[in-house]
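> tool_call: predict_assembly(chains=two)
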Amino acid sequence: MDATILGLLLLDALQNGVIYGLMAVGLVLVFAVTRVILVPIGELLMFAPLSLVWLHSGKLPGTLALALALGLLWALLARGRGGLWPLLGGLGLFLLFLLALKAPLLAYPASVLLVVYLGVATYRVFFQPMREATVLAYLIMAVGLHVAYQGLGLVFFGPEQYRPAPLLSGEVVVGLSWQGVLVLLFAGAAVLGLYLFFRLSLYGKALLAAAQNRLGARLSGIRPEEAGMVAFAIASLLAGISGLLLAPLINAAYFMGFMLGLKGFVAAILGGLVSYPVALLGALLVGLFESLTSFYASAYKEALVFLLLVPALFLQSLRARAVEE
Amino acid sequence: MKRWLLAGLFLALSALAQGALKVGVVVSATGPAASLGIPERNTMLLIQEILERTGGVAGRKVQFVILDDASDTTQAVRNTRRLVEEGVVAIIGTTTTPASLGMIPVVTEARVPTISLAASKDIIHPVDAQRFWVFKTPQTEELMARAIAADMVARGVKTVGYIGFNDAYGEGWARFFEAEARAKGLQVVVSERYARTDTSVTGQVLRILARRPDAVLIGASGTPAVLPQRTLRERGYGGLIYQTHGVANPDFLRVGGKDVEGTLLPAGPILVAEQLPAGFPSKRVALDYIQRYEAKHGIGSYSTFGAHAWDAWLILRPALERALRRADPDRDLAAFRAALRDEIEATRGLVATHGVFTFSREDHLGLRFEDSAVMVQVEDGRWKLVRTFR
């Protein structure tokens, strides 16, 4: 291995790593606030570019119907108490999609908003009604949703991959495309934005409070349902935008999201599912490890990457305390 | 899906009353292999339509009972048991290799002749007591690997790099290609793996580039086969790039775009039917199938996979006619199934869409390499015939 190869591998590691990092941040955020391990985050990520491709080819994606159906359920569950919001949101989304059919540029925000709406509706319809459940029950629900959304993805978008046109084409230096730079910039902006959000805004502080002690947060007037919805919204926003930026580099297909989400999960576990910076570092580590193993032992890459979980879990178990739920 | 099942069942019941011949069909119309299974199902429905118009086989009605296995081995086996119980005379299917392998013990035990639509050589080789009842129509990986190796030799390639799926498809291709390459004096200098769901293959591609092979073979199927090729091009690889016949669908061209220009791949001759030379045996049959399929599903809708199902029926139909002269399925179903199996094995020189079938006691694939594989190149986003082996 010489310096050129090492350089290219490191660039590859960085590009993959930041995506796992964004997934990991989303997972940690959702877990901290709601105790849900958001397994279907990979599906949310893929729904964005696939919906975009559908819009650009002049068709309404099936994901819109799914989002609207969940929105309707959301409104029914709310029964008057704020039931108007999901209906209005759904209507707005539908109109935006009709407009986006004519205006290709509108398709980008439309697909991201669709994923955010879908993410929030998923929380409201599936997780919020079981808010007193155990982490295990949440996990079972999340895995079920992952299987369901992946199956629906196949029905909506078919078995093959799609590749939307990149926003920026060409390469900056060998091994790093402009689209890749966009991904890195977005990751940087997202991390900075989240930091500022949690430090400066009241909402962010409330979210942190809810994450740290839900009972205490409730006593000081923070509604956990609202905090959960915001957490899901942020996580799906991250997933949706990453999906749009990534798809021209990796090709989008209904089955592609799960592995991204799973590797993000490995990174989040490295951070103990609590720490954002460690999760980010963990993600870069996963990316680096993956890049190196794909060079040295590609046949065992997947196995080696997931083997990273073992030492991480071992360390976690050593310093684990009994957590008061 | 349920609609087809119900329709199939209903027709099957009504057929029973008239003493029609029932033929079971198992295909993967849903699940990961759906892009192969759907054209196969469409083809069987097309045949059903033609049979209804023209009055069946040897004056008897023929009824297809079409079941979906969802690309799942367990479901395929369950479907097979059901078909056996319903008294089908033969089974066509299924789409995928693992599921086809799973069906073998069931059809062997029940003594039902079966024509598989899956690729692997393991389904029909060796023809032992287990595989006595099993035939198949698609070319094996081995046969296609031979086409690639022959083309590489003709182009003066000495060293080859391989990158393939880390599943049965990629491993099978690595095994067969390495055997063919060794026989032809080619050297496989590097062999890498990646997953269908992988988002980056930079590491593997760098490793291949470091060895500077004259050509690279990508052992993958469908649109996930684009990623290694694009990465090779982006990293400035200038040698020949070969794909397998698993990419021979329009989606590969759509996703690949200009990144897959110049790709070489082996394929069944039907992929480029209209470009075949006039004397090519399967040309007329292939064009006939394409015309019938496109008349129903639109121009450009046909695929090489549906043609495998058509071939299965081309084999089964004359065998049914001959078997009907020897045994009566209404009186003795077991004897008829046995006679049908013997008649399928007795098929000689049958011209189909993918080649010419001649079965024997040792050979249940029946295809000759020269008639059943051609080399194709991607040119301006279309398949172009570059070599036949006749």
